[in-house]
Specification:
Layout: H1 2-10, E1 14-18, E2 24-28, H2 32-64, H3 69-96, H4 102-107, E3 109-113, H5 121-129, H6 131-134, H7 142-150, H8 157-162, E4 164-168, H9 184-187, H10 194-206, H11 212-226, H12 235-238, H13 241-259, H14 268-294, H15 301-324, H16 328-345, H17 353-370, H18 372-395, H19 400-403, H20 406-421, H21 433-453, H22 460-482, H23 486-519, H24 526-558, H25 565-585, H26 590-597
Antiparallel strand pairs: 1-2, 3-4
Helix pairs in contact: 1-10, 1-11, 2-3, 3-5, 3-21, 5-24, 10-11, 10-13, 14-15, 14-16, 15-16, 17-24, 17-25, 17-26, 18-22, 18-23, 21-22, 21-23, 21-24, 22-23, 23-24, 23-25
């Protein structure tokens, strides 16, 4: 009874997963304090990296002057670094460094899939793009914090969408030794029953990771179940329940070792298992440490084969130890060893450049064709408000000032003067074109990220962003048309705009496809469908990011250039035809179809 009650108290912060060997592994959930501290460390590192980039740019300006081409390139690099740090830092470390950012590594926590598997790059991308919603309102993290407090596994929206969970990453204690102490005989026989000792063992193995208030509560409750054995011990009244139970645990270990009732390993059968298998366990732990340090691929074929065999034997021994009544300390340590081996052996293969190029060459187009329905709905949500707003502003020009900001209104008012002087919509010195291109790419990619992330709100956030951007587009085009400067605007935006607006519609379709899990889950649970569609949708976002890189380069270097209007419009038509041809014909090969079909795989 004591064991069951205490196990319940200690399992509130634990999630159990089953390995392919049908052995359950318990992971201790990371607490909010550890996760918040890890986030502060990571944010501090990001800020320091950005500060270093700006200091480097300042050094370039000091050496070469503000108008130097090298400074213009440097400014573009600084803007790019800022974007990558903001959106790529967490995806890189969590997706390619086994679920641990530097902050998480410092706090001893990591991100894993719900099934215990190492987190993939795609899942890490879904998880971290959801930060746009989690940090609301206004960067306060109110949404994410509230969801984590209410969720039984402390998940934020990003974890729910990606199917991930944040757990503690502790190696556990060494495999318990079973050598008897020379003073064992002076202490006498064990005083606790096997059930009582198992409960005490579980508490002793976990007490260091418990908060002080939780530790005090559990130790007090556990003390009420075992104090009948220690009523005559004066130390009982001189110490806190936590300190006294720690002392009793150490003494009881020695008593049980000497009596043969089972010591730190648990029962006599578990003790015999430890003695019989220790040599193989030590060999497994040595290979495990080497694999975690150097990487499994660096061990060589013979060592990897041996490691896999020892892992399977270790998993089987964990099942035996549970059957034999192994101590919580032994089981906890074995679970950690099996868990680390599981993560190494079942880590998904790293996506090669060949797979990436195959996706860019045709897999993206094939995936977009497969999900044409949500993309079509997103296009309607974008272009229909644009057309309605265009018609409304054309009929009532007074609406322009209500829909557009002061900066855009000034651009509209200056359009005729610029046209008369032969100037374009945007006049940009060549030295700053790299910075402009990088800035535009970053801004547009963030818009697609927001459209995707809004899907977690059952698609409502995505719909709002699409409608809002559609209204803005219709307002701007109508405002220029009202002053007779439509072509002045079109020569600038058509070259990149067709690609850019298509990317926004595709990203909106990705958000709606993910959000459809709440409304149209089919025969599976909404949680399962959300994870699957979210990972497929984020592949669409990866494709739109490539589109926006192309659009940003056009917008940064061609749109503001001195090329004649006819040349710009001709190029815009060629870009549009190339894009239509890509989505219509690319990706019909078997390799590209496979890339599209497996876009949502783990």
């Amino acid at each position: 009874m004591a064991q069951t009650a205490t196990a319940h108290l200690l399992s509130d912060r634990q999630v159990d997963v089953e390995t392919p060997e049908h052995v359950a592994i318990g992971y201790e959930l990371a607490d909010l304090g550890s996760r918040f501290t890890a986030l502060l460390i990571d944010v501090a590192l990001i800020i320091l990296a950005q500060l270093g980039a700006w200091l480097g740019l300042y050094a370039l300006v000091s050496l070469f002057g503000f108008r130097s081409l090298l400074v213009g390139l440097g400014l573009g690099v600084v803007v790019f670094i800022g974007f990558v740090l903001m959106w790529g830092y967490f995806v890189f470390y969590e997706g390619l460094r086994d679920g641990q950012t530097p902050g998480k590594r410092r706090m001893g926590i990591r991100v894993v899939h719900d099934g215990g598997f190492p987190v993939t790059v795609r899942a890490a991308a879904v998880r971290n793009l959801m930060r746009i919603i989690d940090i609301q309102p206004a960067g306060s993290w109110g949404v994410g914090g509230l969801v984590m407090m209410l969720h039984p596994q402390t998940k934020r929206l990003g974890d729910i969408a990606a199917g991930t969970v944040v757990v503690r990453d502790r190696t556990g204690q060494p495999i318990p030794e079973e050598t008897a102490s020379p003073v064992a005989t002076s202490l006498g026989r064990p005083r606790l029953s096997d059930e009582e000792f198992a409960a005490l063992q579980m508490y002793a193995s976990r007490r260091a990771s418990l908060d002080a208030a939780v530790r005090s509560d559990i130790s007090r409750k556990l003390m009420t179940r075992v104090e009948r054995h220690f009523g005559e011990d004066a130390r009982r009244w001189e110490m806190s329940p936590d300190a006294y139970l720690s002392l009793v645990h150490d003494e009881e270990l020695v008593r049980r070792q000497a009596s043969g009732a089972g010591g730190r390993a648990g029962t006599a059968q578990a003790t015999a298992l430890v003695r019989r298998q220790r040599r193989e366990w030590d060999e497994y732990q040595k290979l495990l440490d080497e694999a975690r340090t150097r990487g499994l691929d660096q061990l060589g074929e013979a060592k990897v084969s041996r490691f896999a065999a020892l892992y399977r034997e270790m998993a089987a021994d964990l099942a035996r130890a549970r059957t034999y009544g192994g101590s919580p300390e032994l089981l906890y340590t074995m679970e950690r060893l099996v868990g680390f081996g599981h993560n190494l052996l079942y880590r998904p293969p790293t996506r090669s450049w060949r797979r990436f190029l195959a996706f860019a060459a045709g897999g993206f187009a094939a995936l977009a064709r497969r999900r044409w329905k949500p993309i079509l709905i997103a296009s309607l949500l974008f272009y229909l408000p644009a057309l309605l707003t265009f018609a409304a502003v054309r009929r009532d020009p007074a609406l322009t000032s209500q829909l557009l900001g002061a900066e855009m209104m000034s651009r509209v008012e200056e359009a005729a003067e610029k046209e008369a002087r032969g100037e374009g919509y945007v006049e940009m010195p060549e030295v700053f074109m790299p910075a402009m291109a990088t800035s535009l790419i970053s801004n547009n990619v963030q818009v697609t990220f927001m459209a995707f992330a809004g899907g977690i709100l059952a698609g409502l956030g995505t719909a709002w962003i699409l409608v809002l951007n559609g209204v803005m587009l219709g307002s701007v085009v109508a405002a220029f048309a009202n002053v007779g400067q439509t072509m002045h605007l079109m020569e600038f935006i058509l070259g990149h705009g067709v690609i850019e607006l298509t990317a926004i519609c595709i990203s909106g379709g990705a958000g709606l496809w993910m959000g459809s899990a709440f409304l149209l889950p089919g025969r599976r649970t909404r949680r399962e469908v959300l994870v699957t569609r979210g990972r497929e949708a984020v592949s669409l976002i990866g494709g739109t990011a490539l589109m926006l890189v192309i659009a940003g380069l056009i917008e940064g270097f061609i749109s503001p250039s001195d090329l004649p209007r006819e040349a710009k419009l001709t190029l815009a038509a060629l870009f549009a035809l190339a894009m239509v041809a890509y989505f219509a014909f690319a990706g019909h090969g078997a390799e590209h179809q496979e890339a599209a079909e497996h876009a949502g795989d783990r």
